[in-house]
């Protein structure tokens, strides 16, 4: 069966998908969309648990082989297939067969990727926890829901989905190592590690002795920021700044509220959040969702409709970008919905086929003898090779999205140079701050990077950036669409001068969008991608506590950059330009719900602070403080102390990508704004000016040409 991208990045790469986790199915799906030949090993008896709850989505774009474990011939076929594979996807905590594969010798060039609940070290190693169980143990459940109510388990398997993207990224990194250095390796990805990393926005409060809390759809310190009922649905509105509040009052035709002393400052509005919500809610309740959003958009208020999961196929931007596709299931003859690929650089790919069970047995049997053979290895010999050694990344990133991608690329060995404006990344100013005025959240999101401070409104600073870009392999940015174009650094402008450079743009709705200029915040994107409607609390669609839309934007930036670098190096020609949208990634993360009736939706409320797992286990819902102290966190190296170049140290996060032979290593935190790395200064002839900008040394002596 020809896959949708059989001539793509991973053409010729044979992936065998054995594991049963939803994350394994999603990872296999992403690798198939990137061009790999993915063989799905199906059980003889049809099932409806784990990834088999939607067999059509699990099988889309893959080949199918049904295996009867009681048959000696079938067991031999699977053994030969696994031995012939370049990549094998497992979930060893759910299967004795997967455990045996993980522990046995493997072909020396093979990549064995195991996605489990808790990984292979620590007191919880091997525990077969469900998504809900991991959310409870990792405190993700404790971050979702109303402050005055019980914790809530997410209605969509978002940790499984984030784990799938991390795993696919790790596989592409491992394939790069194999291509350049000749050896494969084992990869260990755990939902728990991913969950702890997803708590980044909550951890700073614990560092200063405060207890993070749930906030429903509200922001912990800003108002108005909530979902509001309209005549025919829900609207998400975020207007916390003074300017936005004035514009919102204009949109509501309530000019007298601007002069109301209760609401005159951001602090005042936060102190009177209930009154603010009552006013805004009364306004939305008299109008349709479309009328509310239209008025708010004209006044440039970050807002959006809360789109139901069942309505995503009709969402204008997702339809425009081809993210929700219709296909016929070859097994049942029924129409189903499938996700497009959020890693987008060549437009919309063809809709993948859905094979019938065992449809590809003959082709697969004929394929095995043609595969190369290699000697077997056991254990995990550690190499000093880093997956991205020799790759330079320039990050022009703010807040979470671009910095998250840059942080993980740095852990994989890339030389990441972060470009900041004179005031710095906005996260440098976000509370809580350390006693020296530096931000905890900035440190968490900016490890393994060197920094330059440039005012791109100045010609001299723009020339410095051109010099740096000429030495780089990748530019990754998440500024407001059009910002860099106006400064001369849009994708067409940069790649015309530097065709070797991979250009990765990430924003809320993409450059190719029906919403040009629309403000995008994590909460707005959650609302407009089905994430918020997937979880309901007392009938109210409720956002995930973790900043999942920001995180998925960064993670698809990570996967996209890894894929694009490999595409450039294996295919030649101009480097790809990636147009990534947070909305695409967030909608993709809900795709396991697209073909499920509302009656089959998951129960999401915890009971008396306990969560009941699929096997009947009851476990307390952990707090963020519990997680920091948990021995599993320590055993997995998830919270670390790392030095900064200007002295001192920071508490930072370890990477969830555990490549056991070429580890992702978190080494350093970023220094204060304006601290110039000596090697960068020497390479480009730069000095740090008194105002913090990074200038050419010649410009200070008046010799610049």
From TrEMBL:
Pfam families: CoA_transf_3. Signal peptide: none annotated. This is CoA transferase. It comes from Sinosporangium siamense. It comes from the Bacteria. Transmembrane segments: none annotated. Keywords: Transferase. GO terms for molecular function: CoA-transferase activity. PANTHER family: SUCCINATE--HYDROXYMETHYLGLUTARATE COA-TRANSFERASE. InterPro entries: CoA-transferase_III_domain, CoA-Trfase_fam_III, CoA-Trfase_III_dom3_sf, CoA-Trfase_III_dom_1_sf.
């Amino acid at each position: 069966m020809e896959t949708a991208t059989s001539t793509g990045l991973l053409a010729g790469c044979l992936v065998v998908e054995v594991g049963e986790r939803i994350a394994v199915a999603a990872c296999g799906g992403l690798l198939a969309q990137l061009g790999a030949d993915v063989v799905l090993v199906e059980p003889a008896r049809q099932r409806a648990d784990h990834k088999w709850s939607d067999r059509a989505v699990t099988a889309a774009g893959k080949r199918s082989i049904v295996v009867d474990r009681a048959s000696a011939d079938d067991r031999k076929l699977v053994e030969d297939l696994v031995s012939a594979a370049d990549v094998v996807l497992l979930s060893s905590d759910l299967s004795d067969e997967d455990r045996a594969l993980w522990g046995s010798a493997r072909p020396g060039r093979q990549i064995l990727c195991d996605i489990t609940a808790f990984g292979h070290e620590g007191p919880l190693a091997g525990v077969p926890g469900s998504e809900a169980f991991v959310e409870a143990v990792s405190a993700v459940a404790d971050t979702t829901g109303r402050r005055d109510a019980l914790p809530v388990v997410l209605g969509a398997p978002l940790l499984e989905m984030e784990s799938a993207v991390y795993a696919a990224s790790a596989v592409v990194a491992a394939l790069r190592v194999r291509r350049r250095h000749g050896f494969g390796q084992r990869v260990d990805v755990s939902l728990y590690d991913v969950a702890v990393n997803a708590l980044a926005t909550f951890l700073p409060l614990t560092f200063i002795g405060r207890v993070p809390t749930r906030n429903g759809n509200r922001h912990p310190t800003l108002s108005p920021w909530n979902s509001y009922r309209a005549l025919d649905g829900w609207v998400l509105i975020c207007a916390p700044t003074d300017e936005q509040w004035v514009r919102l009052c204009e949109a509501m035709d309530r000019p007298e509220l601007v002069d109301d002393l209760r609401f005159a400052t951001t602090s005042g509005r936060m102190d009177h959040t209930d009154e603010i919500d009552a006013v805004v809610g009364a306004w939305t309740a008299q109008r349709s969702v479309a009328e509310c959003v239209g008025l708010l958009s004209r006044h440039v208020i970050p807002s959006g409709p809360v789109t139901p999961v069942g309505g995503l196929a009709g969402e204008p931007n997702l339809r425009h970008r081809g993210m929700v596709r219709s296909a016929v299931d070859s097994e049942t003859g029924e129409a189903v919905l499938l996700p497009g690929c959020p890693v987008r650089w060549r437009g919309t790919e063809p809709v993948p086929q859905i094979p019938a069970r065992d449809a590809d047995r003959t082709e697969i049997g004929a394929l095995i003898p043609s595969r190369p053979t290699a000697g077997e290895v056991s254990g995990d010999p550690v190499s000093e090779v880093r997956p991205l050694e020799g790759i330079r990344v320039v990050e022009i990133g703010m807040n979470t999205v671009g910095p998250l991608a840059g942080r993980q690329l740095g852990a994989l060995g890339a030389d990441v140079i972060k470009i900041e404006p004179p005031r710095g990344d906005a996260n440098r100013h976000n509370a809580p701050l350390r006693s020296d005025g530096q931000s905890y959240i900035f440190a968490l999101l900016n490890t393994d990077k060197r920094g330059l401070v440039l005012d791109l409104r100045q010609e001299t600073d723009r020339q410095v950036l051109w010099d740096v870009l000429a030495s780089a392999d990748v530019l990754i940015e998440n500024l407001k669409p059009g910002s860099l174009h106006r400064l001369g650094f849009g994708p067409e402008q940069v790649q015309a001068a530097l065709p070797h450079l991979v250009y990765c743009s990430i924003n809320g709705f993409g450059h190719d969008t029906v919403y040009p200029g629309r403000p995008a915040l994590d909460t707005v994107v959650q609302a407009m991608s089905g994430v918020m409607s997937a979880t309901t609390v007392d009938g109210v669609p409720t956002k995930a506590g973790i900043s999942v839309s920001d995180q998925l934007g960064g993670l698809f930036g990570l996967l996209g950059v890894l894929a694009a670098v490999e595409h450039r190096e294996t295919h030649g020609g101009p480097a790809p330009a990636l147009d990534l949208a947070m909305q695409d990634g967030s909608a993709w993360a809900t795709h396991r719900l697209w073909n499920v009736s509302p009656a089959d939706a998951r129960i999401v409320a915890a009971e008396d602070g306990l969560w009941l797992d699929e096997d009947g286990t009851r476990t307390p819902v952990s707090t963020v403080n519990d997680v920091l102290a948990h021995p599993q966190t320590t055993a997995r190296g998830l919270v670390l102390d790392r030095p900064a170049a200007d002295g001192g140290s920071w508490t930072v996060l370890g990477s969830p990508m555990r490549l056991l032979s070429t580890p992702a290593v978190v080494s350093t935190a970023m220094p204060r704004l304006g601290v110039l790395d000596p090697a960068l200064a020497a390479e480009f002839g730069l000095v740090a000016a008194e105002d913090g900008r990074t200038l050419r040394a010649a410009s200070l002596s008046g010799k610049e040409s």
